[in-house]
């Protein structure tokens, strides 16, 4: 049909030649003579000739022929030249143009005829080609502005449309425009014929060529101008208005808002006043301009501009009422737009007015009046269905549904003909306020049945809507089936060209899989959706002309939401920045609120990443865009973001309160002031945000220990709710009940426990529950729990039974099989007494064993029974229930706890043999549980957790292996030792190193503040001092705990630090060479007071070997460890006999062996270290870690320190170092007063020692830094934190005070709440310059460190990269022995990051130490290993000879002197060489830890 239409149009425009050649020849002769006379200006003489020629042409030529008009053209021009205008116009309407000699256009006329012939034969290609050549010839002969050339172009235009040659059609239209403008009369005649083709071309141009589209639309507007004053009801009465409307929309979509307004205003100016009543064109243009002026979220307009929009709506309404009447679709359209205006216009917003205009738009009389007009009814349905979102915003879905049903009843259409209306009804049914999902699903199913083609876009849309409604109705399997049924169809771009639409469907499919816990499929489709959305925003949805700016922003936001959900905030930030670029490039003056909001969102995500610097930067950028601080939505929200910043990534989370309180006040004031102008959904968003912010304020006050202000926040929240929603609102009731519950718990568990207040509060909560049961989260079970807390068993049972009745009504008839119901029965039984409790639990076990859904109940009932029988002392019965629990659910996340309890039970019953079948599985389960508990635990929590686990099973394996010699392999025991030894140290180092490696300066500052707070808390004072602020002990502890938790959470984000705990003996064996032996010493209880020592050995090949050694008392009874072979015979001889004499032995001590130099014992009168290379390690796990020795580049030497100092000099030295934010003198004197309270003396040999070392280092071009005299302050040492140091040598006094002696001293200040590790680290350390001021006076200078550098303080420093720390002082290697290792200086340095330590086990001789250290460095700097350097240095000290004078016998001396006196000769001296330091006391004190090189 389309082709026939265009061919018919074509034949209207193309002429045919006459067949009477004779007549035409005569006409040509007359025409030629006439032209000759015309050129002679003899117009009168030419007129008869042209008259006759014209008569012949009109008789012989077809009406479409250009040739037919030539004579008339000349005739008209003759009369025009003679001044006879009316006669000229009668003969030729374009009489003013210069006439054309048709002899010049013979070629073009011939080509036109040829083209017509080809077209008549259906050869369009040849026909178009001929007519194009015709036009080319005409353009050359008569000019490009001549109407004849215009005729050829208008003939070509439909041909280009038929053949869909849009490019040439576009060019053709552009050439017609100047001809139209230069020949108005020709233009009027031509316009109506070409407008349809011009519009067709406009609609076919690719949207990427938007400039061409706009230009062609402008041409269409130009051609339609003659009809702009067409009266209502006439042909083309609205064509001009529709073209102008299209132009406005096109310019708006290119973001040329000013251009769109100018275009519309110009058109409106042309048409206004032509008709008093107005017409359809004016109605359309006024409406389009009004919509543009009124603006929207993407086209923000100032208030004065928006008011123009309302005035134009009023003009359009006047036209509609005058011409269409009140009850017409056109009038209803304006009513609808005015309603929308009042809904969105902030300054004049009125939901009542909006609802009034919407109801007026769709009143009953209008619906009734259109019942007989099918076309108008369809129009009404179209605008009515488009209005649904407005009704939804106004929460007026019921009115919408009532009106929709009335339209359905009146219009007489079938269900399928009413598809638009039915779809809107379905949308209303699935709205949250109504929630009739089943009805909506039924409608969508019928709509799908109406579709003749199941792959049509319309059908796909219905299926998607049905699937989404099923998703809302929690019918996820059905939704998945629907989405999958159209997935492949939508992937075909010929069916669904929109990439974005396909991505949206995949998003929804992913959500469905997520709801059924199929994470694999969910992630699969989410990934597909992500890729498609990225493609959409990069390609403008594959060049989709209907993919607008807001669609692009929506896709970017969806991508951001996905990455937010995945907590990949860096990706979220990347796309927020892409969104920002899009906003900035979209308009010359971007909307400041939109820009501010985007900056805020970027800042929020940097907060989640703990990147305070960037968070501050972007939130500050957002703040600079705020223009109205009364705007609670943007300004208040931004303040809230600042609050979160200070809460999460500030070292002072207290500041978060200031921003939160300011934020909530701004938002509250804004909402109260603007609630009558905000949309319902906006009010709800603001309301929820404000309530949430009050909750945050409550949490912050509560967390910081200020319970009264916390509760005051809840009161203010309730006041706010009343001002917006009233006292009956559920949120008010929920907040009130929450406050009562919190107060109850406070009075029930705080030091000021008050049972009477608890009862009164519980009564209040009960009253709320009974009046507002459906509005609060509490139920009778909570009331019962409260009564249980205050020991009111009678009422507790009563309200548990009431709760049972409620559950029975709710769950009937299957209530008896419901877990909540059974748990409540169990709670009642527990209150009724032990006998009933046990009976109920046994019933639970019986019932749950038959019902799969009660598997969890089954497991926990067995565990509770086991615990009850344990408390009763019935160990055999307890054992049975633990065993049953393991059989019931071996994969339960708490199965490790069950295994531990079972192992404890076996040990109590002396049934160790029962452990054997369970040991491997149980140990693995316990280990996994322990690692899971460690993952987010603070250091103190990890120590507490380890206390519960360290014996069972981690020393149990050795005992079982020792006693039964089967069922457990030495390899399993070895693995347990690798896990056990230094477990707290390893996990702590790994977590802190992750933080330090990341370089998060803010988190490191938090870490430092946490440590300083903990140090202040150790004093035991009720307040701590931070600068000028006093903070309560409770608040300070919460801040420290919060930081500690945050650090662990951050470490968990950066990596799983518990992975450092995973190591097996196979990992060690891979690193061993044939000459190597790994030895893990272990100690374990074998009786009430007996500790047994054993070793697990491992060679490069074969399995680990278990070697029992001796009891601890045998070691303790040795009087001389280092000069006899007794210890060797007990420990080393059995090991070497079993393993062979391998030269390299890597060993890890355990128990008291940590404080004994077991590598220095005698082996057959030869020091053991002379026979073997003995490497003392923290754990043999170190063998599996790469250890590369670095060349020494930087060394720090401390020695010759002055412990006595005057205050002025010490303060001056202190001032050289910048003090840390929260560390100004936080130490307490915690050393034993009985030995050091009088101060310590200067050690002159230490100065010589470091000078010798300095000289040795200079010989190999190392320039170490020396800290001596008063330079070696505690501040100087702490300033080394974070610096790259290879060797750190400290020659000073060291100290260690054991727990017993510390507790006996009245001067030792150790906080009883302190962890065991911190307590131990506080009791060992080094003395630095100026220490005697604190030691002697019991106090230190204000603002200056006290010179007592504890291991705890050292542990907080960053000494990563320190290859060797030499502690040339007394007792630096000993400490409290724990299952986790040694708590002392070695723990402090290890936590700080030092690799290898050289330490002493007892108080050492000053000169012997000088000799040893000087020789050690000579060998080390010469390139020997640390171990070999120490061994040779020790041998050097042992063999070091001094010459002394021998005193002769007194009698012999007297005789000699008498002779010498007589002869006057001097008495000869007697000299002897001795090895003063040969005793192990002088050289065996020093041990080398973790020296693998």
Can you give me a brief rundown of this structure?
With 1493 residues, the protein is an alpha/beta fold.
Written account of the structure:
Helix 34 runs antiparallel to helix 35 (707-724) and helix 50 runs parallel beside helix 65 (1385-1392). The protein is 63% helix and 7% strand. The chain is elongated, with a radius of gyration of 48 Å. With 1493 residues, the chain is of the alpha/beta class. It has a six-stranded mixed beta sheet with strand order 11-10-12-16-19-22, with helices on both faces. The protein has a five-stranded mixed beta sheet with strand order 5-4-3-6-9, sandwiched between helices. It has a three-stranded antiparallel beta sheet with strand order 13-14-15. It contains 69 helices and 22 strands.
Secondary structure layout:
Elements lengths: L1 H12 L7 H19 L3 H18 L9 H12 L3 H7 L14 H15 L3 H19 L4 H16 L3 H17 L1 H21 L5 H15 L14 H15 L3 H15 L8 H15 L8 H21 L5 H16 L6 H11 L2 H6 L4 H13 L1 H6 L3 H15 L7 H11 L7 H14 L6 H16 L3 H16 L7 H17 L3 H25 L5 H17 L3 H18 L5 H17 L3 H13 L7 H18 L4 H21 L5 H24 L3 H18 L5 H20 L5 H17 L8 H10 L3 H19 L7 H14 L1 H15 L6 H18 L2 H14 L6 H14 L3 H4 L3 H17 L3 H11 L6 H9 L5 H11 L2 H16 L2 H17 L5 E4 L2 E4 H22 L10 H7 L4 E10 L5 E9 L5 E7 H5 L9 H14 L4 E5 L13 E2 L2 E2 H4 L1 E4 L18 E7 L5 H8 L18 H4 L7 H15 L6 E5 L4 H5 L8 E5 L2 E3 L2 H6 L11 H7 L1 E4 L3 H7 L10 E3 H5 L8 E5 ...
Parallel strand pairs: 3-6, 6-9, 10-11, 10-12, 12-16, 16-19
Antiparallel strand pairs: 1-2, 3-4, 4-5, 7-8, 13-14, 14-15, 17-18, 19-22, 20-21
Helix pairs in contact: 1-8, 2-3, 3-4, 4-5, 6-7, 7-8, 8-9, 8-10, 9-10, 9-11, 10-11, 11-12, 12-13, 12-14, 13-14, 14-15, 15-16, 16-17, 19-22, 21-22, 22-23, 23-24, 24-25, 25-26, 26-27, 27-28, 28-29, 29-30, 30-31, 30-32, 31-32, 32-33, 33-34, 34-35, 35-36, 36-37, 37-38, 38-39, 39-40, 40-41, ...
């Amino acid at each position: 049909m389309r082709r026939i239409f265009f061919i018919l149009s074509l034949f209207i425009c193309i002429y045919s030649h006459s067949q009477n050649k004779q007549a035409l020849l005569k006409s040509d002769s007359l025409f030629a003579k006439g032209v000759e006379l015309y050129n002679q200006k003899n117009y009168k003489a030419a007129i008869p000739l042209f008259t006759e020629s014209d008569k012949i042409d009109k008789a012989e030529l077809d009406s479409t022929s250009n040739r037919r008009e030539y004579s008339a053209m000349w005739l008209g021009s003759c009369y025009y030249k003679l001044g006879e205008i009316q006669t000229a116009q009668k003969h030729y309407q374009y009489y003013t143009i210069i006439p054309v000699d048709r002899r010049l256009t013979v070629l073009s006329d011939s080509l036109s005829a040829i083209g017509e012939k080809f077209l008549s034969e259906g050869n369009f290609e040849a026909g178009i080609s001929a007519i194009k050549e015709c036009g080319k010839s005409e353009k050359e002969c008569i000019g490009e502005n001549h109407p004849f050339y215009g005729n050829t172009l208008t003939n070509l235009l439909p041909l280009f449309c038929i053949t869909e040659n849009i490019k040439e059609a576009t060019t053709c239209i552009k050439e017609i425009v100047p001809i139209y403008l230069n020949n108005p009369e020709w233009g009027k005649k031509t316009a109506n014929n070409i407008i349809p083709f011009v519009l067709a071309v406009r609609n076919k141009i690719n949207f990427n060529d938007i400039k061409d589209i706009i230009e062609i639309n402008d041409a269409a507007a130009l051609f339609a101008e003659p009809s702009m004053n067409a009266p209502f009801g006439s042909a083309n009465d609205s064509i001009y208005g529709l073209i102008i409307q299209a132009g406005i929309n096109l310019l708006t979509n290119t973001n040329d808002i000013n251009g769109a307004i100018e275009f519309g205003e110009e058109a409106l100016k042309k048409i206004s006043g032509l008709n008093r009543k107005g017409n359809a064109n004016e109605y359309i243009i006024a409406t389009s301009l009004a919509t543009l002026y009124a603006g929207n979220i993407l086209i923000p307009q100032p208030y004065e501009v928006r008011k123009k929009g309302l005035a134009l709506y009023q003009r359009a309404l006047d036209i509609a009422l005058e011409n269409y009447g009140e009850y017409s679709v056109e009038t209803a359209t304006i009513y609808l737009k005015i309603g929308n205006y009042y809904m969105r216009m902030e300054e004049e917003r009125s939901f009542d007015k909006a609802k009034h205009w919407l109801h007026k738009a769709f009143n009953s009389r209008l619906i009734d009046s259109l019942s007989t007009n099918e076309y108008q009814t369809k129009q009404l349905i179209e605008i009515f269905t488009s209005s649904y979102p407005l009704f939804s915003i106004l929460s007026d879905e019921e009115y919408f549904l009532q009106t929709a049903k009335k339209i359905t009843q009146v219009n007489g259409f079938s269900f399928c003909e009413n598809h638009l209306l039915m779809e809107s009804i379905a949308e209303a049914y699935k709205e949250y306020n109504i929630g009739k999902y089943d009805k909506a699903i039924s409608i969508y199913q019928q709509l799908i049945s109406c579709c003749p083609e199941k792959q049509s876009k319309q059908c796909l849309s219905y299926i998607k809507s049905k699937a989404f409604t099923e998703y809302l109705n929690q019918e996820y399997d059905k939704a998945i089936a629907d989405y999958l049924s159209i997935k492949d169809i939508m992937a075909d771009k010929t069916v669904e060209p929109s990439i974005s639409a396909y991505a949206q469907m995949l998003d929804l499919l992913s959500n469905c899989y997520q709801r059924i816990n199929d994470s694999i499929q969910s992630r699969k489709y989410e990934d597909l959706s992500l890729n498609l959305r990225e493609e959409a925003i990069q390609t403008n949805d594959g060049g989709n002309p209907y993919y607008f700016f807001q669609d692009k922003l929506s896709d970017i936001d969806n991508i951001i939401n996905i990455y937010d959900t995945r907590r990949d905030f860096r990706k979220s930030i990347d796309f927020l920045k892409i969104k920002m670029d899009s906003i900035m490039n979209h308009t010359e003056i971007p909307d400041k609120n939109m820009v501010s909001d985007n900056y805020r969102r970027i800042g929020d995500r940097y907060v989640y990443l703990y990147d305070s610097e960037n968070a501050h930067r972007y939130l500050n950028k957002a703040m600079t865009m705020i223009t109205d601080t009364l705007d609670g939505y943007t300004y208040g929200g931004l303040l809230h973001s600042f609050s979160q910043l200070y809460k999460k990534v500030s070292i002072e989370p207290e500041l978060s309160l200031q921003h939160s309180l300011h934020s909530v006040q701004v938002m509250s004031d804004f909402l109260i002031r603007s609630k009558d102008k905000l949309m319902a959904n906006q009010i709800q968003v603001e309301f929820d945000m404000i309530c949430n912010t009050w909750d945050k304020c409550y949490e912050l006050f509560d967390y910081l220990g200020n319970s009264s202000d916390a509760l005051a926040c809840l009161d203010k929240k309730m006041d706010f709710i009343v001002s917006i929603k009233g006292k009956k609102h559920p949120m008010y009731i929920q907040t009130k009940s929450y406050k009562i519950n919190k107060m109850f718990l406070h009075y029930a568990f705080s030091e000021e426990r008050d049972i009477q207040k608890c009862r009164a509060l519980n009564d209040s909560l009960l009253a709320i529950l009974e009046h507002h049961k459906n509005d609060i989260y509490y139920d009778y079970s909570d009331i019962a729990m409260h009564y249980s807390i205050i020991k009111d068993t009678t009422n507790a049972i009563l309200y548990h039974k009431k709760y049972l009745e409620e559950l029975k009504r709710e769950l009937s008839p299957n209530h008896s099989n419901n877990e909540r119901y059974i748990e409540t029965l169990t709670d009642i039984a527990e209150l009724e007494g032990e006998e009933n409790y046990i009976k109920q639990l046994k019933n639970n076990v019986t019932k749950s064993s038959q019902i799969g859904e009660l598997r969890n109940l089954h497991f926990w009932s067995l565990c509770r029974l086991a615990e009850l029988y344990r408390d009763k002392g019935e160990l055999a019965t307890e054992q049975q229930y633990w065993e049953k629990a393991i059989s019931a659910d071996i994969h339960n996340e708490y199965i490790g706890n069950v295994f531990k309890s079972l192992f404890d039970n076996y040990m109590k019953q002396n049934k160790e043999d029962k452990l054997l079948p369970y040991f491997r599985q149980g140990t693995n389960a316990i280990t996994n549980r322990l690692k899971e508990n460690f993952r987010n635990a603070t250091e103190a929590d990890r120590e507490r957790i380890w206390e519960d686990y360290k014996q069972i099973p981690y020393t149990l394996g050795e005992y079982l292996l020792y006693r039964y010699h089967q069922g457990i392999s030495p390899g399993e025991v070895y693995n347990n030792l690798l896990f056990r030894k230094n477990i707290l140290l390893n996990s702590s180092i790994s977590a802190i190193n992750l933080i330090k490696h990341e370089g998060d300066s803010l988190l490191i500052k938090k870490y430092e503040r946490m440590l300083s707070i903990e140090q202040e808390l150790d004093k035991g004072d009720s307040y701590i001092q931070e600068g000028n602020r006093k903070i309560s002990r409770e608040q300070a502890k919460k801040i420290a705990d919060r930081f500690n938790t945050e650090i662990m959470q951050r470490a968990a984000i950066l990596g799983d630090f518990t992975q450092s705990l995973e190591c097996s003996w196979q990992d060690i064996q891979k690193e061993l060479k044939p000459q190597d032996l790994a030895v893990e010493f272990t100690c374990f209880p074998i009786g009430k007071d007996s500790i047994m020592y054993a070793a697990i050995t491992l060679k490069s090949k074969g399995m680990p070997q278990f070697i029992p050694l001796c009891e601890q008392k045998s070691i303790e009874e040795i009087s001389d460890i280092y000069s006899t072979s007794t210890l060797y015979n007990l420990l080393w001889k059995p090991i070497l006999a079993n393993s062979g004499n391998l030269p390299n032995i890597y060993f890890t001590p355990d128990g008291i062996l940590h404080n004994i130099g077991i590598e220095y014992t005698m082996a057959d009168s030869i020091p053991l270290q002379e026979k073997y290379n003995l490497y003392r390690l923290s754990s043999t796990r170190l063998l599996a870690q790469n250890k590369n020795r670095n060349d020494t580049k930087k060394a720090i030497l401390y020695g010759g320190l002055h412990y006595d100092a005057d205050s002025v000099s010490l303060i001056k030295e202190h001032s050289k170092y910048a003090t840390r934010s929260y560390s100004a003198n936080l130490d307490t004197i915690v050393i034993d007063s009985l030995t050091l309270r009088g101060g310590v003396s200067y050690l002159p040999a230490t100065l010589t020692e470091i000078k010798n070392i300095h000289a040795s280092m200079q010989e190999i071009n190392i320039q170490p830094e020396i800290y001596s005299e008063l330079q070696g302050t505690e501040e100087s040492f702490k300033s080394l934190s974070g610096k790259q140091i290879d060797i750190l040598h400290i020659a000073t006094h060291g100290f260690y005070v054991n727990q017993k002696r510390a507790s006996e001293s009245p001067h030792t200040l150790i906080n009883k709440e302190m962890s065991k590790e911190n307590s131990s680290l506080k009791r060992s350390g080094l003395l630095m310059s100026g220490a005697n001021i604190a030691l002697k006076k019991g106090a230190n200078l204000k603002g200056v460190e006290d010179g007592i550098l504890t291991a705890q303080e050292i542990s907080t420093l960053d000494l990563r990269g320190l290859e060797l720390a030499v502690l040339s002082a007394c007792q630096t290697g000993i400490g409290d022995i724990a299952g986790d290792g040694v708590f002392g200086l070695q723990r402090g340095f290890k936590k700080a990051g030092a690799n290898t330590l050289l330490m002493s086990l007892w108080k050492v001789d000053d000169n012997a130490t000088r000799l040893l250290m000087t020789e050690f460095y000579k060998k080390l700097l010469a390139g020997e290993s640390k171990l070999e350097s120490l061994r040779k240095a020790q041998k050097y000290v042992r063999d070091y000879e001094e010459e002394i004078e021998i005193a002769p016998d007194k009698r012999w001396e007297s005789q000699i002197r008498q002779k010498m006196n007589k002869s006057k000769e001097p008495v000869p001296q007697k000299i002897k060489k001795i090895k003063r330091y040969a005793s192990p006391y002088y050289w065996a004190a020093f041990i080398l830890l973790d020296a693998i090189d």
